[in-house]
Amino acid sequence: MAETKTNNVFVPSGKKRTGQDDFDGDDVIKAKKSMLPSALSFGDDPVAALAAARHEFGEHGGVNMSIEASATFTVMEPDTMRRMFSGELGPDRDFFIYSRHFNPTVLNLGRQMAALEGTEAAYCTASGMSAISSVLLQLCSSGGHVVASRNVYGGTHALLSHFLPRACNITTTFVNILDLDMVKNAIVEGKTKVLYFESMSNPTLQVANIPELSRIGHDKGVTVVVDNTFAPVVLSPARLGADVVVHSISKFISGGADIIAGAVCGPASLVNSMMDLQQGTLMLLGPTMNAKVAFELSGRLPHLGLRMREHCHRAMEYATRMKKLGLKVIYPGLEEHPQHQLLKSMANKDYGFSALVCLDMETEERANRLMNHLQNYTQFGLMAVSLGYYETLMSVSGSSTSSEMSPEEKKLAGISPGLIRMSIGYIGNLEQKWSQFEKAISRMQDSSFGYKG
């Protein structure tokens, strides 16, 4: 059976097993050998690193990899199963147990994500929240402590402020991530296990000083975990000093608003520990990615760089024009943004500054009125949460994606009741879409709105 599986299959890595189960394995993952063969040498260009990663060919020589849809896998010799469960044999040698543990198709997507983020290894999960929660639970035990930015996605804020204290006795101190002294003072040596923040905050678009925060975390002996969902390709947190990078792949990486998925990118030792049969959060909690989903995403990653360039190009153009109209615009590509120079110093060259633009309309009523015009009268965009779609997506964050936060928490995070978060799309041509935006503004007919046209 194994011979039928492997004969006449082009395997560039030379790791497909033959009829005998006679390999020795040192660990579940040999990251630098099998997951990221040459990508680490491409410096600060994530797209080049992704292109240099191992290409997985199909079973019959197809340019696209095959989908391994099996939930369970056979072995040639009875003793092999014992050796796999003991960790002696693993997927680095093409030995698979069960797809909740490792699946070849999902593993290949993990290789691509590791190359993209410049980490040793990566594991892809069923959602972004499952990636975040699994990492935090692996790094923190009962009685543990997290220091986190107060400017994080509402679901993450709820996990840290409500669920983890109640269910796991893990507490969090929320800080202004821009105040480095505040971050230092919040870390309790010996108790704090994780420093957690977003590379670009949801929804306020604050830019974290990743190198300095990583230095502070490492000086204090804590693991630095960065959510890079808002800035794939634009920023590479691991190359800037972070230990772990998490993603909601559902957003820009997918690009189609049709998939829910996540990823944990970091050291091979962490991924191995998360897949441990006795103590691994990914293994035991089971946020398993479907192999068919992994196949879909693997085909979208190669054009992520092209899509992000256009997303960011249009966002910069729109933000500049919105500012000229007298609107209150938040966009890190504008020189007046407080962290513009910081972002410029950290960003990967030629991919832009962000695909997100925020408009502060001050009140929810004004924000809703503008979004109604933009969707229902001029077709500029869609009122919907999420990011990275080819259409522009708009939502009032305070009453949607940050609704888990209390009014006081939203005020501390700088989330105005009228803050509209826009994920700028690339459908149509730029002038066509800008004309739609201008027409919506002209319909507002509100002298207090601040429109100068």
TrEMBL record:
User: Any idea which residues bear N6-(pyridoxal phosphate)lysine here?
Assistant: 251
Task: Show the GO MF annotations.
Answer: carbon-sulfur lyase activity; pyridoxal phosphate binding
Asked if Signal is a keyword of the record, the answer is no
The biological processes this protein is annotated with in GO are: transsulfuration
Q: Which Pfam families match?
A: Cys_Met_Meta_PP
Q: Does the keyword Cell cycle belong to this entry?
A: no
Among the entry's GO cellular component annotations, what is one?
Answer: cytoplasm
Tell me the keywords, alphabetical order. Answer: Pyridoxal phosphate
Cofactor(s) listed: pyridoxal 5'-phosphate
Q: Where is the composition biased (Polar residues)?
A: 1-10
Write the protein's name: Methionine gamma-lyase
**Similarity-based family:** Belongs to the trans-sulfuration enzymes family.
Q: Where is this region: Disordered?
A: 1-24
The upper taxonomy is: Eukaryota, Viridiplantae, Streptophyta, Embryophyta, Tracheophyta
Which InterPro entries does the entry mention? Cys/Met-Metab_PyrdxlP-dep_enz, PyrdxlP-dep_Trfase, PyrdxlP-dep_Trfase_major, PyrdxlP-dep_Trfase_small
| Signal peptide start and end residues | none
* Organism of origin: Jatropha curcas
